[in-house]
Design brief:
alpha/beta; Aldehyde Dehydrogenase, Chain A, domain 1; 2 domains; 16 helices; 22 strands; disordered N terminus; binds nicotinamide-adenine-dinucleotide
């Protein structure tokens, strides 16, 4: 009988580590319904963040692999049933995807947590959110209404909404499965076919989509997956002439590069980029709630969270109390192996990212007052573990105030007036989210409306409503997804003009003087 026990730990494996059973022996691309190696046979190492040892090799896609995936997706778009199916029929398949994801949430979370270092309880929440993303867009396309405009007696003009073609989806390594679903859901619901290029640090959960889609009944060729590095596989997608739109989530600097590389091809771009979001705590706020939420806001998902409230601005009257209580609570946040249910902060995704975060902690020691954490927590000899780290009295020109660290590190800065708080909040290149803590109604709305952020939460941490716009301003992104905005991004809205009654054509070439009506009609164009 086959054993259900996980494989024995390699000799160097730390004691509190768990390898999931039945890990794949290779991660391959999925092109036109087949799991395939790269055409040139190239692979790359995938590490697990607790041992930093290679646990599997993944196919390293290049231009030729992307070409094959795009050709399959284009064929499925031109010849297959998917773009032509009734929204209800597509919706049923996408609901089945959601059902399957939900029914496997524990396994998905186990693999995601192992591959990314996210705490298992949070990976479970992300798996459920992935299912919800599919349900949401499956429902939305069935309820989709499009505009019609009447010009009484003369015209009826309507919007013919159409899928665009092959959507290129490029995703990061933080909450990989969930962020993939955030793009796959609307891209597929609207009838496009796709090529997904997931992040190279975390390819494991992405490779599960193929089986899920097959089981749900998605036609062959609609979903294609190419693993590999950004500059090879990602760039081949960005510069591919038959990929008319790219939805990208990742760092702002990568977004800038993609924007430039896509320019000669004039494609649709949706850019969800980095953040350095402020949490602004006024003296009249409910401090207990503000502390709980701002602890969660930067230490959940290991701090590897685009909307992390990584700068906390606190009004002077409550500043000392806030810092003291915040630091004490941060020191109690449980760092542990990703698979343990009690873990609140797991292991950072990769040693390169760990080095980056540790580098910022060293910089922070010269820029602020260290009040919690400050390095590797005790008792963790290996793995990418970082103690929740809090710097107080951080000046607004400090690098740890200005730059995205993307780890469990927070900068706290005092302010006196509303104007000062606003200047501090807006004084960075990013503008993704903002969190405002006050019980003063007028201040809450005035501040929220003035802050340069794509999304604002009042007296709350990041609780998403999938109907609302999602996206950033300034260096945090271009365009908004969320609700019908995602549907807009993934569709053409063709205007069809229908003449009623007599046509109203200007008459040229009949040797008569143009009338005022003729000239007005031309001027309309
Ligand atoms: P990254 O920019 O390094 O990589 C993201 C993806 O882009 C990966 O798949 C990578 O392979 C690919 N890529 C890299 N170079 C490319 C190129 N030249 N052409 C095409 N593709 C390329 O980002 P990351 O480190 O994986 O993720 C962390 C970043 O993502 C953070 O900045 C975070 O704030 C951001 N993020 C933003 C949101 C949001 O919604 N705004 C959500 C999650 C993460």
């Amino acid at each position: 009988m086959p054993s259900t026990e996980p494989p024995a730990a390699p000799p160097t494996e730390p004691a509190r580590h768990r390898r999931p059973a039945d890990l794949p022996d290779r991660i391959r691309h999925y092109i036109d319904g087949s799991h395939v190696e790269s055409i040139d046979g190239d692979t790359f190492d995938v590490l697990d963040p607790v041992t930093n040892q290679t646990y599997v090799r993944a196919a390293a896609g290049k231009k030729a692999d992307v070409d094959a995936a795009v050709a399959a997706a284009r064929r499925a778009f031109d010849e297959g049933p998917w773009p032509r199916m009734l929204p209800r029929a597509r919706s049923r398949i996408l609901h089945r995807v959601a059902d399957i994801v939900e029914s496997r949430d524990a396994r998905l979370a186990e693999l995601e947590s192992f591959d990314s270092g996210l705490p298992i309880t949070q990976a479970l929440g992300q798996a459920r959110r992935a299912a919800e993303n599919f349900r949401f867009f499956a429902d939305l396309v069935v309820a989709q209404a499009d505009d019609a405009y009447k010009v009484p007696g003369r015209q009826i003009n309507y919007v013919n909404r159409k899928p665009i073609g092959v959507a290129g989806l490029i995703t990061p390594w933080n909450t990989p499965f969930m962020l993939e679903s955030w793009k796959l859901g609307p891209a597929l619901a609207t009838g496009n076919t796709v090529v997904l290029k997931p992040a190279e640090f975390t390819p494991l959960s992405a490779s599960l989509w193929a089986g899920i889609f097959e089981e749900a009944g998605l036609p062959t060729g609609v979903f294609n997956l190419v693993h590999g590095f950004g500059e090879a596989a990602g760039d081949a997608l960005v510069t591919h002439p038959r990929v008319p739109l790219i939805s990208f989530t990742g760092e702002s600097s990568t977004g800038q590069m993609i924007f430039a590389n896509a320019a000669p091809h004039l494609k649709g771009l949706s850019m969800e980029l980095g953040g350095k979001s402020p949490a602004v705590v006024f003296a009249d706020a409910d401090l207990d709630a503000a502390i709980d939420a701002t602890i969660f806001g930067v230490f959940s998902l290991n701090g590897e969270r685009c909307t992390a409230g990584s700068r906390i601005l606190v009004q002077r009257q409550v500043y000392d109390e806030f810092v003291e209580r915040y630091a004490a609570q941060a020191r109690r946040v449980v760092v542990g192996p990703p698979h343990e249910a009690s873990t609140e902060v797991g292991a950072l995704v990769h040693p390169e990212h760990y080095d980056k975060v540790m580098g910022y902690i060293e910089i922070g020691k010269t820029e602020g007052r260290l009040v919690a954490g400050g390095g590797r927590p005790e008792g963790f000899g290996t793995g990418n573990y970082v103690a929740p780290t809090v710097f107080a009295d951080v000046a607004p020109d400090a690098r740890i105030f200005q730059e995205e660290i993307f780890g469990p590190v927070v900068a706290i800065t005092p302010f006196d007036t509303d104007d000062e708080a606003l200047a501090l909040a807006n004084g960075v290149r990013y503008g993704l989210a903002a969190y405002v803590w006050t019980n003063d109604l007028r201040r809450a709305h005035s501040f929220s409306q003035a802050v340069e952020a794509g999304m604002v939460w009042l007296n709350s941490n990041n609780v998403r409503d999938l109907r609302t716009p999602f996206g950033g301003v300034k260096a945090s992104g271009l365009g908004h997804e969320g609700g019908y905005r995602s549907i807009d991004f993934y569709t053409h809205q063709q205007a069809v003009h229908v003449t009623l009654g007599e046509g109203h054509n200007p008459t040229f070439g009949k040797a008569r003087t143009p009338t005022v009506t003729d000239v007005a009609a031309v001027a309309d164009e």
